[in-house]
């Protein structure tokens, strides 16, 4: 079964970021997930524009930029000017007065538009945007910190999104507390990709190649 695996780079070793990128590439990662936090939309600061720009230059793999910031349209050009056409930008609809305007800017720049849906955000409130975006990042934990517990009611939201994705032409991605059992359950149902952090990928005492190979060889 084919599914995408993306590395949550806020969990990487920043003392050896170049080596981390190289080892993840060599290990077979599909893309790099960059969490940008402003300390306002979420109660934390994470990666910076400079981190994103460095990783974009260090790899030919796609980047998934997850903007956890207030009013992303005010700053969207800073990101668009430092990315490539195959890269994705996710925004949180609640963070913007007119999220469709921001999404259109991403589309006009030739990049892949996406929205991130918090655990407390209902599918109904983002229904119209589902026809605009190509990717929906479903947060299975509240955004802002790594290592949180999975919120089980999110599974019903994914089921609802799966029933809509063919008609509205978008793919679903999982972010937060991604364990092997979640991949085993949701990949066969149609979830396209999974963001890997401390639960499965980082800090496991194994090479990234071995870890990623083990994930791809899960018995469905």
- The largest sheet has its strands arranged as 1-2-3-4-5-6-7-8
Structural class of the helix and strand makeup? alpha/beta
Order of helices and strands: EHEHEHEHEEHHEHEH
The main sheet comes to: 8 strands, parallel, barrel
How far apart are the termini?
8 Å
User: What would the average pLDDT be, to the nearest integer?
Assistant: 93
Number of strands: 8
How much of the sequence lies in strands comes to: 15-25%
Helix content: 25-40%
Total helical segments: 8
| Outline type | globular
Low-confidence stretches: none
* Rg of Cα set: 16 Å
Describe this structure in words.
The chain is of the alpha/beta class and 220 residues long. Helix content is 30%, strand content 19%. The chain has an eight-stranded parallel beta barrel with strand order 1-2-3-4-5-6-7-8. Helix 3 links the parallel strand 3 and strand 4. The longest helix has 11 residues. The mean pLDDT is 93.
Structure in a nutshell:
The chain is of the alpha/beta class and about 220 residues long. It has helices spanning about 15-25, 50-60, 75-80, 100-110, 155-160, 165-170, 180-185, 210-215, and strands at about 5-10, 30-35, 65-70, 90, 110-115, 135-140, 170-175, 195. Helices cover about 30% and strands about 20% of the residues.
Write out key terms for the chains shown.
220 residues, alpha/beta, 8-stranded parallel β-barrel, 19% strand, globular
């Amino acid at each position: 079964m084919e599914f995408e695996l993306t590395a949550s780079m806020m969990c990487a070793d920043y003392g050896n970021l170049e080596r981390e990128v190289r080892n993840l590439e060599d290990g077979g990662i599909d893309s790099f997930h960059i969490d940008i936090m402003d300390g306002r939309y979420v109660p934390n600061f994470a990666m910076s524009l400079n981190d994103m720009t460095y990783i974009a230059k260090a790899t030919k793999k796609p980047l998934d930029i997850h903007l956890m910031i207030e009013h992303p349209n005010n700053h969207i050009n800073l990101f668009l000017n430092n990315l490539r056409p195959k890269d994705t930008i996710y925004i949180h609809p609640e963070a913007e007065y007119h999220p469709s305007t921001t999404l259109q800017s991403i589309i006009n720049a030739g990049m892949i538009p996406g929205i991130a849906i918090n655990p407390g955000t209902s599918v109904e409130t983002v229904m119209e945007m589902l026809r605009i975006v190509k990717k929906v990042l479903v947060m299975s934990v509240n955004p802002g910190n790594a290592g949180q517990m999975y919120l089980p009611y999110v599974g019903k939201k994914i089921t609802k999104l799966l029933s809509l994705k063919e008609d509205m032409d978008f793919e679903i991605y999982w972010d937060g507390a991604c364990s092997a059992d979640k991949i085993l359950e949701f990949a066969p149902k149609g979830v396209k990709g999974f963001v890997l952090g401390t639960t499965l990928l980082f800090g496991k005492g194994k090479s990234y190649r071995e870890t990623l190979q083990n994930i791809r060889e899960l018995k469905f």
